[in-house]
Amino acid sequence: MTQVLAIMVLPLFLLAGIVAAAVLDRAVPPLVAGRSLKASFVGPITVASSRAMGQTGATEHPDTISWILAPILYFTLAAIGLSVVPFAPGVVAADLDAGIVLWGACESLTVVAVFLHGWSANSPLPLIGAYRYVAIGLPAMLLSMFVLIAAALPAQSLAVTDIVEAQRSVWNIVRQPAGFVLFLMLGLSLSLRGPFDFADPYDLAGGTTAEISGAARLTWWLARLAMLVSVSAMTATVFLGGYLGPVLPGFVWLVVKTGLVLVVLVGAGEVFARLPPDRMMNLIWLALLPLSFLMLVAVGVELLLWG
Questions:
Q1: Rounded to the nearest 10 degrees, what angle do helices 215-239 and 2-32 cross at?
Q2: DSSP 3-state of 91
Q3: Integer distance in angstroms from the first to the last C-alpha of the chain?
Q4: What gap in Å lies between CA 191 and CA 110, rounded to an integer?
Q5: Alpha helix (H) residue ranges in 120-166
Q6: Cβ atoms of 10 and 80 closer than 8 Å
Q7: Strand partners, 88
Q8: How many domains does the chain have?
Q9: How many CB atoms are closer than 10 A to CB 128?
């Protein structure tokens, strides 16, 4: 019964999150630039309407089927990843013993979805954006592997629900602040934002989106927002205790924490500049990956010594 409830809640949670993320996308940039805050539901609706009614462009000899399937795959991966997040005690759509593994599979397949989107256009700029993302996205997924294993060690389980329950005494953000930051970086990579937006950057005229317009651009935009919501909920669950909290119902705590992570990710996407691809590769391989491995070792040693 609780699983059925979770399956019913999941699309509503994702839809509400997409709306909130779209509003934040319109509100945060002016705030970062020092202008007045304009948080409104009208702006995202206007953008969505104009894209839905716009003319859909095409290139010469595109892979049309893959072009259509790419945003569908991207959106589906966001929904599947969200399915392992418990909304309340016992309320989870996919209560798997290896929920972290399913999330990791969704992360990896995101690279496939983004590459497919750029490759299908049969055009230079989208293809360059796709290859850039593969080069940056794959090592970024390794960060997630070390970070999530470190988060799972205190629970001695790969089940997301067990990871939440293991945080009743102390949240993982306190145990592993570096892991929290690294996972936020992964979130920027998965949702194609800010310093990790190598797939759809302005210097490539939009990269994988350079040749799309109308409804095709709308569906890709919605898929990106869906992934942003999914990774925000996962961050709140793994590092901020998920549904744990005093007084308020667990679902409310999850919504509040997910909203806070959403704000942080949208803000980080506006504040931090994107490095050239070669410098980003050096940063990931020479600094971030060793840091994530050392953090994993440190967590393991701590548990061995103090339990």
A1: 110
A2: strand
A3: 36
A4: 9
A5: 124-152, 160-165
A6: no
A7: 91
A8: 1
A9: 19
Tell me the residue range of the domain where 164 lies: 2-35+66-306
Residue 68 CB neighbour total at 10 angstroms: 14
Burial class (CB in 10 A: 0-12, 13-18, 19+), 162: middle
50 inside domain: no
Under a CB-based contact definition with an 8 Å cutoff, are residues 155 and 162 in contact? yes
* Cα distance between residue 33 and residue 121, in whole Å: 34
Phi, psi (rounded to 5 degrees) for 91: -105, 95
Question: Looking up tokens 């070669």, which residue turns up?
Answer: 278
> Considering only CA atoms, which of 108, 132, 288 is closest in space to residue 208?
132
Give a yes or no: residue 299 inside a domain: yes
For residue 65, what are its two tokens? 């089927």
More confident residue, 289 or 202: 289
The lowest-confidence range among 147-156, 160-169, 201-210, 298-307 is 298-307
User: pLDDT tens-digit profile of 126-155?
Assistant: 999 999 999 998 888 888 889 999 999 989
In a domain, 56, yes or no: no
CA 249 to chain centre: 25
* Residue 176 dihedral angles phi and psi, to the nearest 5°: -135, 70
| Residue 30 token pair | 């002016």
3-state class (DSSP) for residue 88: strand
CA distance 7 to 92: 8
User: Which amino acid makes up residue 178?
Assistant: A
Angular region, 194: left φ>0, alpha ψ -120 to 50, beta rest: left
Asked if 236 and 254 touch (Cβ cutoff 8 Å), the reply is yes
Q: What single-letter DSSP state applies at residue 96?
A: -
- Determine the residue type at 162: D
pTM for this structure? Answer: 0.92
From 208, 184, 205, 204, select the one nearest 196 (Cα to Cα). 184
Q: Is 55 contained in some domain?
A: no
